[in-house]
Structures are given as C-alpha cells and as structure tokens.
Amino acid sequence: MGDNLFEGLPPPSSSQQKNQEEELQQSATINKKREASPVPAPVPILKSALKKPKTNPEPEAPVSGKSLRFKTTTDASETQVIEAMKKIASHINNPAKFGKASKLAIQMIQAGSIKPGTSDHFFAILEAAMSSSTSCTDPSVRADYHALFSAAQDAAECLNKKQKNQLSTWTIRAVVANDLFTDDSFVFSKAAMRIKEIISNLPLATKDDDVEEAVALKDETEMTNEDGSDEQEMPLGIMSEENKKDESDPFGLDALIPSKMKKDDRTKGKKDSVVKVRKEEEEENKRFLKSQREALITCLEIAARRYKTPWCQTVIDILVKHAFDNVARFTSLQRDAIEKLWASIREQQTRRKHGKSVTGKLDVNAFEWLQQKYAGEKISIRHSVGGGGDRRAQQWLG
C-alpha cells in the first residue's frame, strides 16, 4: 500500500485522455508541416537597387563660331588667343568698355596665355590702355588700371627689354600713383617707400639731358606749319640725289664691275650694324629715364595734393625731402618743380607750428607736437633724477 502513490485516487476519466491524445496529434502534425515546407529567408536589398536609373543625356546642339566663349584660354589655340587679344586691344582704349576689356585681359594672364608667341599682342593691349583719352588716375577707371598692371607683372618675363622698361614706367603711373589715393596708411607709406627707392636708383642728370628737355619743350610750344613745307621739300631732295647718281654712272655699268674690296665692305657693314645697335640702346635708355622721371614727378604732385589729410603729412614731408636731397637726379625743369614743392611743404610746416593751416584748424600732427614739447626740455643723463634736468637729486621722505 505504501508503494502505490495513486492509491485512494479516482481513476482518470476517458475524456481527459482523449483530449491529451488530440493535442499530441495536432502538435505532431504541425511539426511535420513545418519540416515539409520551410519558409525561405528574406532576400537582402542592395543599395544600388534603390538608386535611380541613369538616363542618357541629350546630345548638345553644335555651337556657332561667333558665340564661342571659353573661360580659360588654356584650351584655345594660339590663333584664337591672338584674335581675342586684338579684339581686347581695339576696345580697351574706350573708357566705357575699359572695365570689361581689362578683366578679360587679366583672365588671359591668369590662364597662362601670355607666351613669347603672343607677348607682342599682349603688349599692344597695354599700349592701347595707356593711350586712352582718360587718365589712368581717373576715379572711374583707377581700380581697373591698378588691377590690370598689377597682374601684368606676372607676364613680364615674356617681354623683351624695351617692353619691360615701358611696362615699369606704366606701372609707376597706374599702380604706384593710384596707391597714393588710398585711405589706408600702410598702403600709402608703402607707395612712398617705393617712390623713394626708384628716385635713389636714378642716375645723375647730365647737361645733355637738360638740353634735350629744352629742345623738346621748344618743339612742343612752337605752333608752326613746318610739316607742310617739309613734305614739299622732300621730293626735291630725292630728285637731286638721283641726278647725282645718274651723273656719276650714266650708263649703269658700276653694278656689272666686280668690286675688289668685298671683304672690307662686309667688315665695315658689321661695324656699322654694331654701332647702330649701341646707338639704339643708348636712345632707348635715355627715353626710359625720361619717362621714368616724368612718372615720378606725377607721383610727387599727387602726393602734394593729399597734404591736407593729417595722417599723410609726415609721410609726404619725408618723401618730398628725399626728392629734394636727390634733386640732381632730375632735369632742370623738374628740379625747379621739386624745389617749389619743397618750399610749399616747408611753408605748410611753419603754418602748422603756429596753429595756422589751410583748413583754419590747429593742424599739428603727433610727431610735431612731441617735437615742439620736448624742444626746450632738459633731460638728465640720470633719467628721472632731477626734475628740471639740473642733476640735483631729491630725497623723498615718508
């Protein structure tokens, strides 16, 4: 009795046994179905399938030759670059079109289109720009001239010696002179330092320079009709030379007679060519110095006009004083102009010291105020020892 655990319990009913058997059968059938037909795993979606399909771009219509434009000239041929430069040169001397034409020229410089083969056409652009009726210091085109000739320095290597000299003179007029109109004291001081440097590098003027200047001034002031008389006299001179040749060789036989001195003629021709080259170099150097001096005088005049601006006065004083100290490097008329300018500057300094100026205000800058303050002061060699500079020590008690 103790071994039977279910002793005394009622026997299980038949309905419960049937329910348990049905549940077991259902679970067995479900397991069989799952094993017979397994569910496939979901296929992963690729990112490329989510992208939109590429559509074929429509073919571009052919561009006509007249409307062809290129952002940079690196893809253009040399002939296209030359044609573009010719168009720019034809429009850049027009003040109304100067801004646009100068920007196109700057783009060509930045694109590297200025090469030995195109340097002459590029120089023609600069020459046309400086031959404009409007001055390069005019407020309407001042910034464009400054930008153009500042960028032109990158293409100076492709120019010859004569063109480089001319470009340096134009740079003084278009860049340095325009920097004197700035409101930035640093830029103004930098331009003044550059002018001083150029003045110091000038050679001393000679008597020949003074004579040439006087002759050139006389030719400009004379208003005569000598051109017409010269044109009428030229044919007569040519006819007289031809008559002399006919008289010396009436039958034209000198060309048929062989010359015995061919070698001497060749050596003489070589010497003449060398002398001619040297003479051209000397004339070019004189012309360069003349134009450079004139550009520097223009810069000094522009600086003098800005003397009413207080922060410009000290820089202008130093600049004009430097030009006056190196006045021997200029011609006679230019020396007179510099001397008058320096006299005007000294007069303005005297007026400022007495509290009088052109504007009617007390126009004394900081340097002059300190100079005036300490002009009568006695400074001790022991620094602050001695209140009035009498070198007597004072003992401070307490």
TrEMBL record:
<protein>
    <recommendedName>
        <fullName>Nucleolar/coiled-body phosphoprotein</fullName>
    </recommendedName>
</protein>
<feature type="region of interest" description="Disordered">
    <location>
        <begin position="1"/>
        <end position="74"/>
    </location>
</feature>
